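Re: the pair you flagged

First of the two:
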Amino acid sequence: MKSKLLPGVIAALLASPALAFEPFVVKDIRVEGIQRTEAGTVFSYLPVKVGERFSEEKASQAIKALFATGFFKDVRLEVENDVIVVLVDERPAISQIDFVGIKEFEKDALKKGLKEVGLAESRIFDRAVLERAEQELKRQYLSKGLYGVQITTTVTPLERNRVGVNFNVVEGEAAKIRQISVIGNKVFKEKELLDLMALTTPGWMTWYSKSDQYSKQKLSADIEALRSFYLNRGYLDFSIDSTQVSITPDKKDIYITLSITEGEKYTISDVKLAGTMVVPEADLQPLLKLKAGDTFSRDSVTATTKALSDRLGNEGYAFANVNAAPEVDKVKREVAFTFFVDPGRRVYVRKINFAGNARTRDEVLRREMRQMEGAWYDGAAINRSKVRLDRLGYFEDVAIETPAVPGSTDQVDANFTVKERATGNLMLGAGFSSAEKVILSASIAQQNLFGTGNAMTLQMNTGRINRTIALSFTNPYWTVDGVSIGWDVYQRNVDPTSLSVATYKSSSIGAGVRFGYPIAEDDRINFGLAIDQTKIDVFDTSPAPYISFVNNFGDTARSLVATAGWARDRRDSFLYPTSGVYQRASLEVATPVLDLRYVRGSYQHQHWFPFGGGHALMLNGDIGYAHGYDGKELPFYKNFYAGGIGSVRGYQQSTLGPRYIDANNYTRSLGGNRRAVANAEYYFPMPGQGKDKSMRLSLFADAGYVWGPDDKVQASDLRYSAGLAFSWSSPVGPLKFSLGQALKKEDGDRTQKFQFQLGTVF
């Protein structure tokens, strides 16, 4: 049987008409040389089928199509008695990719990066792709400052035409920045400029922060920080003339030199508004963040542009454009700004859409909306809606987009995308606190019951101080206008004898109902009524006022307690606030219907100040007052206490205020009817946690004290402390640690530097 190389192949490659062949009808097609590729795959790329006429043009197309697949190193076509034989030489497939010597990266992360350049397991092996992969791997190391990295690649043939690719890496040591120099500065000292930069020379913490390792991205960010520093101080002509980065021959030391021109300081000569004023100019003037005579500041210009755009957005002009046009007078070193206002078309919101709420019902999100469908676009209302969703505590993140409706010039949709967090908690376990020691606890809690927004909690715990079983339910939207209803039943035993508190025991059982009503966007008032029965046990070591109270009122006291409260919450987040104000006032009155008569009130004011990047300062004040009335005493178990991780850290739990010495010559606290606590705490993210908000460190300063009925309230009585704290919203509940130092210790004060609380203590 005569076999010959198909002349059409040569014709396709050499384009020579002399090597043409006569077309023929294909009797059959065979494929030879394949090991992994299916014959059907080859057939699918051929431009001819059995029974069809095969020509020189189709032969050329077949060769090109098979080569283009990348599956084959060589392709030939032969013919035997009008039968086409396709002979292929397959490229090997990558069976496995492995790394040796990798310490700086996770192997899976590297494989993902190599896959993006075309090198991955099960793909066809290509030497050119391998070279790109080596360069990508080296680039990854260079980004970490490992300039001395050495990469050796080994390709090992395996059975069934496969190969294994092995990267042997000698990482070496990271190059360190030995010197950063700034040339050309006259107004500001070099040290002040270097303090603005994230890149630094080696220091005592750079082993952790790695800020002494060069990164092109970090240097670009540092250059922008320098530019912003100068532009915000009036140096409009500031420029970076050159940036030089050099590395020593041994690739261990890096030297960075920045050459700058500061220029002259400019002041604002005039500020004007121009354009289409759909909002009265008188309403826009107060939004200007700069005025004539001020030093030029780029941040002020940016803030003015944003404020004007937001104001127009509140009137429905979602696509308003505000441009700041400068007029520079280089002789007088002055600059005038004209803010051109182009409101565009007024638009309204067609639909409000929600995504990501797999468990939470749409109606729970929709009732928090302050932007209505079919109404004019209102930027403030949309942002307010986002804040309200975030405050629910059901979501880790809330994002908002307002895309234009296709085919319309005056409509947008408001798309809210949420990332749900676990709102249910089934916990059987143990907690520990420095006050209560071991706490065995069990709880079933769901803050978003069946996705309805209702909350139900069954709590049980056993500790040395508190033993509690409580069931509560809250419907935050009992009515459509936001009236809430809730109820509670509980049984609580209190035994504070393990604390430095006066000895007694109490056992309470009670139930109550409560209502809440929104009186403003951020304000709610609440009312409640509860009945309580408390049995009290006193001992020989109990203080005389406690024994006297039991003698006068018996060991069982019943009360019908009415409560009223007001709360204003303007914080930006329920879980991880960084800005805003929280205020709360409450009043508890034992009505004269039953045994007890007392009034107990408290007020808390908390203010958060953001500093960017997850940093925030929290100032908190909390005062309380209680007293009996109608000739009755305040029940001693309604006293206020201070000291410990919840009030004034650095002092033992509940030890501040009036005290007495028991029969065993042990000093114990009595508590009091007046309390004042103040806290200042600076929060910052846990280093290395990135965008994770659940862990935060803080520096704190606390002050507080408790006074008895016969004491005079004096600032000199206050106790002070300061220290470092750590908080974590863990899956099993909040964890809090503090390392505090008592700054004012009087005789009899009990201090405790390290305090902690693990797990939820009810």
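Second of the two:
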Amino acid sequence: MWSKKVLVPALGLAVLAAGIPAAVYAKDSQSAKKQVKPVTVKSTEFVGMPAPATAQDMAKLYTTAALKVTYSNGVVKTFPLSYKKLFKSNEKVGGTIAGVAIDAKGKPIMDTTDPSHPIPYVSEDPDSNSLFSVPGMKAVSSTGNPLSLVTHYEYINRAYGIVPASMSLTTIDQNKKTGELKPVALKKIDFSSVDGLWIPCNGSLTPWNTHLGSEEYEPDARVFEADNTKANVKTFTQNYYNDTTKVGNPYLYGFLPEVTVNKDNTTKVVKHYSMGRFSHELGKVAPDNRTVFFGDDGGNTMLFMYVADKAKDLSAGTLYAAKWIQKSAENGGSADLQWIKLGHASDKEIKTYIDKGVKFSDIFETSDQAADGFKAVKVYSSVSSKVEYLKVKPGMEKAAAFLESRRYGALQGATAEFNKMEGVTVNAKDNKVYIAMSYVEKAMEKDSKGTDPADDIQVNKLSAGATYELTLKGKQKDSKGQPIDSAYVASFMKSLVFGEDLAAPDALGNKANPDKVANPDNLSFSEELRTLFIGEDSGMHVNNFVWAYNVDTKKLSRILSTPAGAEATGLMAVDNLNGFKYVMSNIQHPGDEMIVADSLKADVEKYIDQNFDNKSAGIVGYISGLPTHDQLFPAVTKAKKK
């Protein structure tokens, strides 16, 4: 199983905001009534922070960064940033422990390792955040606006994959004057209608104001069918239903769940079976409200695209997988992308296969060696990755495409060589998608032994990883020459922000250059600031960081440092919620798998234990202090108020 890890460069990100229509009105020195020419925002610049150098700082979650705004008349304003904790994963919010695992009846799942002292399983690993406003929701105070926050709890360290995961819905009171966020109440979201929630990693907010979650590291149905004690499905199911007679079904897990929050604070959950089954890091919807790009985490994974039949409705559509046609190998490489159509389906159609109890052997014929009619593939498995010889049984093409998307894609010629494909975000103005590849290595390198079934990707090893930019275009055709019904089809993919491996660890223990991003994971884009935010999940930096990268000036700034061994998660740039901006950012498992130098390790661990309840608490929170909408767009705001 993949271990979870965590984010950084230059201190001073000059962010040209040339497209920002901000204007500031000033008074003429000769006449208080005369209005001079409107002043525009010339640039914004993140003034970064240094990497921590002391044991105390290495054990903290903090920022000393700032955002500097320069106007065309020479006026400069600096906005210091600070980190605000909302809650720890092991704290109660309104009477409910935030990270508690619950069963199908909504009751806490108990750890009975010590039968005389059972305790609830509580996650140390908060991940995705969606912060949003639900129209018509009642305010919780006379001085605040009501907001909703959906948060993932990815797993529990001591029970990875065998105790069902969870999401919470937190009611937030947003101070109308300062924008400060205060958690008021929290409840666990009920997933019993969709058979529980597998490992939820990252997620996103859809353009229509719903939360799109994930189920990562899908259980291997072939392994499970051969031995149902493997792949964790059986123990997961028994824990969820509190029933030791249940066996479970791997085809219930590995999809994207969508959560709708209603104005009365109730929730509705659906799983989108027609969007394919693989190791969903997350799905991100393009501006057309139909096209979706995904992260597929693990080794030997695949780049997928989904085009829904209808806008704002992900219940039916067409699934595609990409073929990498390499152009360069340096610093993560670049390639043209060719899209292979896997099939069209509705959620209802695919759920019918699952409800009938379809098994891996109902979908595929297998061979232990090369044989006529069988094709060799090598794709990610939660248990093992090895060459398989497969053939789809007649009439089972649709089941294969949507329940075994990666295996079927490989049979059709799609590239299954991506490694640790993580976060995804969209730059709407420039028609770009950004995708993080945490570790550019293994199947992405040239197959020097010649033993793999395919070798499309042959880039140079870069263990520090890279974030890629995908160019979106319309009027594209698939591999068979058929039109793709989307104006947001990725046609070209290139490395944009990449790390630097060190030949030997530095004095603090870093294995990658601490002034460049290492092992990018979470991504989020601010349209107003023209900034790509990058969160790390690194096994190569002593501390993981959150970075701000301006897509116009190409400058990078470190804006948040997490405690050693923690992963930066839950990254979400919020441009305007009732006039306020935020960068949501959590941490998971502080102190886990530290690589800090031996001379500092004992002190760092001591401070982490003090700060994070002996490593039992993750943190949900946000970067505060960004300029308000009025401060960035004063002239526009004044005009509206008139």
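The two ends are 59 Å apart (CA to CA).

-B.
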